[in-house]
Amino acid sequence: MPMDEPQHRLTVVGGGVMGSSIAALALGHGVPVTLVDLTEDVLRVTRENVDRQLRHAQLLGALPEGCAPAELVTTTSPAAAAEATAVIEAVVEFSGTKAKVLAEFAALTGPGVPLITNTSGIPVDELAEAVPHPEDLVGTHFMNPPFLIKAVEVIRGPRTGERTLARVGSLLTALGRTAIEVRDAPGFVTSRLLHPMINDAARVVEAGTATVEAVDELMRKCLGHPTGPLATADLIGIDNLVDSLNILFERTQDPGCRPCELLLEKVRSGDLGRKSGRGFYDYGKASM
What we know:
By secondary structure, the protein is an alpha/beta fold. It folds into two domains: 10-183, 3-Layer(aba) Sandwich (Rossmann fold), CATH 3.40.50; 190-276, N-(1-d-carboxylethyl)-l-norvaline Dehydrogenase, domain 2 (Orthogonal Bundle). It contains ten helices and eight strands. The chain has an eight-stranded mixed β-sheet with strand order 3-2-1-4-5-6-7-8, sandwiched between helices.
């Protein structure tokens, strides 16, 4: 780490699936985390999820050998972010909510502290309107689970500054991740390719052409997809997938991005994937 680079002190806003997963990744690499959410009940569940993911990562050998986990502080007070060297926003995939959170934390940290929106599809420059220093804002798209997936899509908005990119690159290096930089656009690269493909896989099942299991097995064994698209949907969270597809459809008008009825029905039924215990597959109990 360069001599003028401060020790990383990360604030994560949002204790859901991605917020807790990013926190676990950072803690496992020795980076202290302050995690902010709205209620103590949410934070209690978040702490349990972080602990579980740290155990899984250690069992899988996914963390640096000999590195003791750093300290996790959980709080309902945004003011705890004042000393952060970077803030990762990982709240729900709605631009208005993200913009409000980014504006609040920008006021607390002041200029020069990277504001990182973890989004699967909202263009960074849309959110830049909400912050006083757009050069501090950058996008990331961590894949789930972050402790196993080594690369992170880094989205450079039109107003993202070089200093911000350098600092985010330093943070990701400290987390053992490879940053792959892309330009700003709806869905960027990964979601723009993956999410319509999952939508099409669900349409195949909806049409009765093949079972869920057959679709995933063919994609794994014939086309090299590591998990299968519908198992991947369960891992992403089907509600999150539908939100991302809606963002893509609204901004591109690509009909392939309009969520199919099977996905919508699963969301209405509460079958959201691993986190609810049932999605395209039955997991017995909630596992996220």
